[in-house]
């Protein structure tokens, strides 16, 4: 991992592009929370299972693209980041509007590595 919490976006996008549910879940704290419309899961095992099913099904071959809009350090071991993100289907260069999200990430650092404690997204206008 990196000292820059914004680099977490690239790590998540790589795991997504690779369909790597283990890598995706490992970006979270052990008791991390993932909240999306209709979804609320807690803990790496649950996040891993959710994403494995999605990568094997509706998200197969998709890519995640995102950019930090803001990063606010809450101290040396915590940060809040807001991301403009989107999911691209195979062959797409621009997503449909319904696949654009704004996400907030609560990040914590332990042993030099940033992890996602809470991820929440909603539709982006």
UniProtKB/TrEMBL annotation:
Transmembrane segments: none annotated. Residues 7-116 form the DUF4440 domain. It holds the Pfam family DUF4440. It comes from the Bacteria. InterPro entries: DUF4440, NTF2-like_dom_sf, Steroid_delta5-4_isomerase. This is DUF4440 domain-containing protein. The lineage of its organism: Bacteria, Bacillati, Actinomycetota, Actinomycetes, Micromonosporales.
């Amino acid at each position: 991992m990196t000292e820059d919490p914004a680099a977490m976006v690239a790590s998540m996008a790589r795991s997504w592009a690779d369909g790597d549910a283990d890598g995706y879940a490992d970006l979270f704290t052990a008791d991390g929370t993932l909240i999306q419309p209709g979804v609320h899961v807690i803990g790496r095992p649950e996040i891993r299972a959710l994403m494995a099913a999605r990568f094997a099904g509706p998200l197969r071959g998709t890519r995640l693209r995102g950019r930090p809009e803001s990063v606010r350090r809450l101290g040396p071991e915590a940060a809040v980041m807001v991301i403009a993100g989107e999911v691209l289907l195979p062959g797409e260069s621009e997503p449909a509007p319904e696949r654009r999200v704004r996400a907030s990430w609560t990040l914590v650092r332990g042993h030099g590595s940033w992890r996602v404690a809470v991820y929440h997204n909603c539709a982006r206008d």
